[in-house]
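Researcher: We are triaging several targets before committing to wet-lab work. For this one, the compound of interest is zinc ion. I'm pasting the protein sequence and the ligand SMILES. What I need is the predicted three-dimensional arrangement of the protein with the ligand bound, expressed as structure tokens, so it can go straight into our comparison scripts without reformatting.
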Amino acid sequence: MNPLEFFDSRDIKFYRKGEVGGECINSPYHALTTCPICGGVRLWLGYHMANGNFTCMVHGVADKRDLFRHWFPEEDIDQLMLTINWPQDKSIAKSKITQRTSSVLKLPVGIVPLLDSEPHCQYLRGRNLIPERLAHEYKVQAIISGSLADRHLFPVLNLDGKPVTWTTRSIIGAEPKYKAARLEESVVSVKNVLFGEHLCRYDKPIILVEGIFDALRVNTATSTFGYCAASFGTHLTKQQVLKLAEYPRRIVCFDSEPTAQEDATELGRQLAHYGGVTEIVQLDSEDPGSASTTEITRLLKYAGHM
Ligand SMILES: [Zn+2]
């Protein structure tokens, strides 16, 4: 069976050029659908009819088997693969297959529920955060043994709320402060995601900050949710910029130091290609993570969230 006929028969809708919903497609060889790995409703996953390759605009080249694992039960995959006649022309693909991420997320050892570890909870309270909320809304966990002991585990969730990668943060001042999953432990590279994006909404302005603790503080300092996500630093990848571009209004709130502010201006320039509005704001505090409740309230009011 032809791949697109197969997907039709399985109710996986691929949009093609000239179809309602496929207006953004220029090439007769391309079909687009939602990416089961990144989640959400945007048509990020492209299928190329000439070479049989799948590429996600956000997370990159996608291995067929990885995609099938997200669409179908594991025990059916071998049989399904055989029913499809994939195109034989691999010439375009060869140099592009550099897939090194994993099809299953590999978590570190020694994880316990956050609320079971008092030192981890204490650390968060010391940073003006509420452990109960972080455990519930962000699935934050505690690592108590192994090579990543005395660190928090911060899963990064896709738009459907499924973890695709993770990072950790030491609670005892160990270096490096943050230690992220390696590419081969991740389903999507940590450089291609925004932390906290699973709780953001396209119809709400997004507040973009540098770090996890900035995002957590903005989102939980008041009873109003901040629709704030973090880019893991001030240098965004193309994939992160594309994700941000999906929000019609973006408020960039990086740390107050001059280089971070320069990077914010540069990000504004990059986002200008995609339409929508980018605003750059600066707090009186060093960073959003250490901002007072009054200051965060002011930021949320500016964004129109309260
Ligand atoms: Zn994807």
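Researcher: Any quick observations?
Model: The longest strand covers residues 163-170.
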